[in-house]
Design a protein that fits this description.
Number of domains: 2
Distance between the termini: 17 Å
Strand order of the largest sheet: 2-1-3-12-11-4-5-10-8-9
CATH superfamily of the largest domain: Isopropylmalate Dehydrogenase
Helix content: 40-55%
Order of helices and strands: EHEHHEHEEEEHEHEHEHEEHHH
Bound molecules: adenosine-5'-triphosphate
Number of helices: 11
CATH class of the largest domain: Alpha Beta
Shape: globular
Number of strands: 12
Length: 338
């Protein structure tokens, strides 16, 4: 069976890691007709639009995208393309599995980390509502709605039930933001009532960060609003070996975009140093989403096998190989399994 998918290489290390992930997907033998869309800082500035309509049209057509990071200017410039895309396509669930990989040296030598972050993806402080009220006084509005909070909680609990996961921990700051985070928590509690087999807990975000660093093995599924999800994702990536390893999915009712947690990493862009593991695992999630379960498993197992062997790893995880050398090792493993 053949599939259609939108491919957004992005910028920075995006083109390198997406090319690597495409090579790995092609090695599985799954036939994907890629609709390639250029979306990067240069295109945005030249066209003076953050989301060119042909990209939105392509994803509506293919229903699924594999995306590299797109650079977001800091303290000014155009708004985040990554956030704009998630909002424009209503990709409300951001799902990020964080797992120990064999052969990657971390500070946690004797515990296995296996958690999944479910981050609300469309609102919170990412609503983009910032104003200068009077000179030198800025407000930034945090939007939390019942509709969005219920649907991300439903998504996480349904996932737990369907995948036999045991516990969900809501992460919040409802002791301070009693109305907004209070609403998020009330919605999570309400949804939890329908899933008595899933243990439900709550942790204040600062305490959650400490517990995650001290006892990461105790966490299973984590449910949180947008901003905490963004920050905690990078924190947990650090627990398992860094941003080069953690994949992600942005899921809506009918559309989905798969992308790594990391950004465009301009410091290593164009040097052949980027670790494509996170985007390969994102492609594994995409294949599962497309119903290509066997191919997804083969891709995931091949990446893990390369780590187990430990000979062809990139610099960020202690190896000395280039993006292309690591990718060739993964492709070889996939071919071995056939
Ligand atoms: P953004 O704000 O767009 O998320 P960021 O400024 O938080 O981006 P990233 O681009 O995510 O930062 O990366 C932070 C650092 O982590 C990079 O500078 C780079 O050194 C490292 N890094 C990120 N992704 C990778 C990768 N795939 N392979 C190797 N190193 C990476």
């Amino acid at each position: 069976m053949s599939h259609h998918a939108t491919l957004i290489p992005g910028d920075g290390i995006g083109p390198e890691v997406t090319a690597a992930a495409v090579r790995a997907v092609e090695a599985t033998g799954v036939n994907i007709q890629w609709e390639r869309c250029e979306l990067n800082e240069e295109v945005i500035l030249r066209r003076n639009e953050v989301l060119p309509p042909e990209i939105i049209a392509s994803i509506h057509r293919t229903k699924v995208g594999l995306k590299g990071p797109v650079t977001t200017p800091i303290a000014g410039g155009f708004p985040s393309v990554n956030v704009a895309l998630r909002k424009a396509l209503d990709l409300y669930a951001n799902v990020r599995p964080v797992r120990t990989l064999p052969g990657v040296k971390t500070r946690y030598t004797d515990v296995a980390i296996d958690m999944i972050i479910f981050r609300e993806n469309t609102e919170d402080l990412y609503a983009g509502l910032e104003h200068e009220v009077v000179k030198d006084v800025i407000t930034s509005i945090k939007v939390i709605t019942r509709v969005a909070s219920i649907r991300i909680a439903e998504y996480a609990f349904r996932y737990a039930r369907e995948n036999g996961r045991k516990r969900i921990t809501s992460v919040h700051k409802a002791n301070i933001m009693k109305l907004s985070d209070g609403m998020f928590l009330r919605c999570a509690r309400e949804v939890a009532l329908g899933y008595p087999e899933v243990e439900y807990r709550e942790l204040i975000v600062d305490n959650a960060c400490m517990q995650l660093v001290m006892h990461p093995e105790r966490f299973d599924l984590l449910l949180m609003p947008n901003l905490y999800g963004d920050i905690v994702s990078d924190l947990t990536a650090g627990l398992v070996g860094g941003l080069g390893l953690v994949p992600g999915a942005n899921i809506g009712e009918k559309l989905a975009i798969f992308e790594a947690v990391h950004g465009s990493a301009p410091d290593i862009a164009g040097k052949g140093l980027a670790n494509p593991t996170a985007l390969m695992f994102s492609a594994e999630m995409m294949l599962t989403h497309l119903g290509e379960i066997e191919a997804a498993k083969r891709l995931g197992l091949a990446v893990r096998a390369v780590y187990e062997r430990g000979e062809k790893l990139t610099c960020d995880v202690g190896g000395a190989c280039s993006t292309a050398e690591f990718t060739s090792a993964v492709v070889k493993e996939i071919q071995k399994q056939q």
